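Regression test case RT-17, inverse folding.

Input:
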């Protein structure tokens, strides 16, 4: 995430703040996890594929000392990496390098916002993603103007902007739905 996008993501996550304030439905009952995402209590280095071992080579000497969740995350990450195209890998490397360049305070803030995003319902997450995509499609000058307007707004003005955005999204969703059949 580059420095220009960090404020954008922050703004979009702030725009979703009212969603976080809404009471959420109780979480669904836990389901059994598929074998590949189950905790890796006994995941041995030898259980990784040759390609995964190659990707994770620097962890080989300390593999048995890593917590099971970390081993599973690394194994899943290696699988994702191996499934990427060269272009996707370049993008992932670039994003990681940009992440490493961020000051620790900014990384911490982004992590906190990501955790809050993860607590949203799937529908709320989709709303945030759609808002981000719509914002990203705007011309650069318009994005700058919206950012400045948001940053200079009072809390009351921000609430009004968010309410206006919600009304527009609801209208857009209603237009996208097929007409309901009339009841007789």
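Golden output:
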């Amino acid at each position: 995430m580059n420095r220009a996008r960090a404020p954008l993501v922050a703004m979009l996550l702030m725009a979703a703040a009212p969603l976080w304030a809404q009471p959420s439905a109780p979480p669904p009952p836990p389901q059994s996890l598929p074998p590949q995402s189950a905790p890796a209590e006994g995941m041995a280095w030898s259980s990784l594929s040759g390609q995964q071992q190659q990707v994770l080579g620097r962890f080989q000497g300390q593999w048995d000392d890593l917590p099971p969740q970390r081993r599973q995350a690394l194994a899943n990450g290696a699988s994702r990496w191996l499934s990427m195209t060269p272009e996707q890998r370049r993008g992932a490397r670039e994003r990681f390098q940009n992440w490493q360049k961020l000051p620790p305070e900014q990384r911490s803030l982004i992590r906190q916002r990501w955790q809050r995003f993860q607590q949203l319902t799937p529908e709320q997450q989709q709303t945030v993603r759609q808002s981000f995509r719509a914002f990203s499609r705007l011309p650069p000058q318009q994005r700058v103007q919206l950012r400045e307007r948001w940053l200079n707004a009072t809390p009351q003005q921000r609430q009004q902007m968010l309410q206006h955005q919600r009304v527009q999204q609801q209208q857009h969703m209603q237009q996208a739905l097929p007409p309901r059949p009339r009841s007789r």
